[in-house]
Design goal:
Length: about 180
């Protein structure tokens, strides 16, 4: 495991022209710089795909599904395209704080964890903090992961060697 590993960030994108610029900017603004951003448009009917074309950062990779297939299919496609030693997910209408990747990756490497998740705070549609934090348990076991938990997909990071175990059934909605 390298000290400056590539992190693949997967964002399924669908009809989010109102939010996608800020979401992508929250990745570009990360203090950790060795990442690739995999954006997969899932058949948007608004200007989302055209907005994505405005980003020129070479770390950003843009793909399109042939039709709308849903977030599970789209995340799985992102997993197959990911080249990083670590994988992280972000939803197309959510934001990361600028030190999210560096802090989480440092924690994982320091503690030899292959899979982590974090608490998160809620914001309104304008991205303003509404002063509500969703706290998650410090640890969960496999059985607890199979149940409905408060773990948000956008807080998860894991070593890419685990991706074969984390692919989601395509007929299950998640988000």
């Amino acid at each position: 495991m390298s000290t400056n590993p590539l992190v693949s960030i997967i964002i399924p994108v669908y009809n989010v022209e109102k939010y996608i610029k800020e979401t992508v900017r929250s990745v570009i603004g990360q203090t950790y710089l060795n990442w690739e951003l995999i954006l997969i448009d899932d058949g948007s009917s608004d200007q989302t795909y055209q907005i994505l074309q405005d980003f020129t950062d070479e770390r950003i990779k843009i793909y399109q599904n042939d039709k709308n297939r849903g977030p599970s299919y789209t995340r799985n496609r992102g997993l197959s395209l990911a080249k990083g030693e670590y994988i992280a997910f972000l939803d197309s209408d959510d934001l990361w704080e600028k030190e999210k990747l560096s802090k989480q990756l440092n924690f994982m490497q320091k503690n030899h964890h292959s899979f982590t998740f974090t608490s998160y705070k809620l914001v309104d549609e304008q991205g303003q903090d509404i002063h509500r934090v969703v706290h998650v348990p410090e640890k969960v076991n496999y059985q607890e992961l199979l149940c409905n938990t408060v773990i948000s997909t956008i807080t998860v990071m894991f070593e890419s060697k685990l991706k074969q175990y984390l692919q989601m059934p395509e007929n299950i909605e998640n988000g």
